[in-house]
Structure to design on (148 residues):
């Protein structure tokens, strides 16, 4: 993945060379969707090592910004993600992976998806979020051995 030359904009956008663009922290944003439904499960980050392991193993690996550590999805919960397809956006600074989610959920809060709240649109003043598809599918305290 490390390249000796920076490819041209045209090569990045129109060519077949794999040239992921990591940000100043060495990370690339990853959007994770469920292969069967297309539902967005989570947004995460990968560093070069996580991206390499994900490609080599077909299992989702990420970089935790809060823990500053590499982690394999499901290593503590058992809720793994098998990657069925990986795509890059036009300028190769964002990745979209389609996964088969094993286990009842991808979110550490105990839900299937990390996107369980909606922002009501066309409102003036204070905003109050609305729960959407927010039922817990597993008990995070039981799964992770700690309370939230």
């Amino acid at each position: 993945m490390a390249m000796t030359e920076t490819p041209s904009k045209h090569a990045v956008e129109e060519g077949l060379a794999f040239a992921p663009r990591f940000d100043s922290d060495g990370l690339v944003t990853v959007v994770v969707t469920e292969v069967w439904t297309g539902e967005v499960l989570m947004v995460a980050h990968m560093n070069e090592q996580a991206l390499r392991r994900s490609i080599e193993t077909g299992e989702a690996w990420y970089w935790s910004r809060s823990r500053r550590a590499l982690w394999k999805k499901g290593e503590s919960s058992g809720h793994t993600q098998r990657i069925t397809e990986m795509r890059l956006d036009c300028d190769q600074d964002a990745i979209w992976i389609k996964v088969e989610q094993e286990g009842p959920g991808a979110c550490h809060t105990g839900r299937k998806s990390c996107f369980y709240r909606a922002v009501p649109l066309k409102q003036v003043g204070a905003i109050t979020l609305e729960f959407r598809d927010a039922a817990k599918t597993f008990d995070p305290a039981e799964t992770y051995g700690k309370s939230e």
Notes: The mean pLDDT is 94. The chain has one domain: 21-144.
